[in-house]
Write a sequence for this structure.
């Protein structure tokens, strides 16, 4: 496949950015989207030009680093991470536009790389449980109902990629936040801090500059882990309970 790429280039957070046009040739449909960008960067290196900066780590759909907006869709046309997106989803001769996540709370570091440390600070604000030190407890000493354990497990698959924020017209991180609140709130181990957790994490979310949820649902559609929208209902229910308790 031969492709034309329109890529956002920006030297640093305060620099003016612009779209740049590139051509790549001999791209195999079996390559991942990131491998296609590797081909581009090898070519730019040979020419002595600055390679395009983009984030990645595991390339296995686990770490959440590979955050690219592809033709206006977070992670591109398939429900998966950019590293698991393959070039067979595109056609020979296609023109593809590649941008970083666009959200005030995710400032651009360089080109396609954004700073997602706001998510880390939300987790630090309350995304943990207290545990006694000492030897590991007996595995079945804290029974968890199967339906709650399965729901906690399903939403714990959130990889913190930020696609939900990038897809949301309000730049809200409510789906991410709801996934964390639900994951910990469904399990017995998460109960002691349940209502202080939701207040602290929502406060940090708002402090970081993420927007509010207006129930549009783009977040869940863009999520590569298919986190359901009802985690936001659980977030709001826990927040209402916490506020009633005067937390
Ligand atoms: S909820 Fe989905 S889109 Fe949002 S950070 Fe988690 S995995 Fe990514
Ligand atoms: S590089 Fe880790 S999820 Fe894509």
């Amino acid at each position: 496949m031969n492709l034309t790429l329109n890529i956002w280039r920006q030297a640093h957070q305060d620099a003016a950015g612009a779209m740049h046009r590139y051509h790549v040739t001999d791209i195999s449909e079996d390559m991942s989207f990131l491998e296609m960008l590797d081909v581009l960067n090898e070519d730019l290196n040979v020419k002595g030009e600055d390679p395009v900066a983009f984030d990645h780590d595991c390339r296995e759909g686990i770490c959440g680093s590979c955050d690219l907006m592809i033709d206006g869709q977070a992670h591109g046309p398939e429900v998966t991470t950019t590293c698991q997106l393959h070039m067979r989803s595109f056609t020979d001769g296609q023109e593809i536009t590649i941008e970083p996540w666009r959200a005030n709370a995710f400032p651009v570091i360089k080109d396609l790389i954004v700073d997602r440390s706001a998510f880390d600070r939300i987790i630090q604000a309350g995304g943990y449980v207290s545990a006694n030190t000492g030897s590991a407890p007996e595995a079945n000493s804290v029974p968890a109902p199967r339906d709650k354990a399965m729901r906690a497990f399903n939403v714990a698959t959130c990889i913190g990629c930020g696609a939900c924020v990038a897809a949301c017209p309000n730049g809200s991180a409510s789906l991410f936040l709801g996934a964390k609140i639900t994951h910990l709130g469904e399990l017995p181990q998460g109960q002691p801090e349940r209502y202080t957790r939701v207040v602290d994490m929502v406060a940090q979310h708002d402090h970081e500059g993420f927007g509010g949820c207006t129930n549009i649902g783009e977040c869940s559609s863009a999520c590569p882990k298919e986190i359901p929208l009802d985690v936001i209902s659980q977030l709001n229910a826990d927040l209402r309970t916490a506020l009633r308790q005067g937390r």
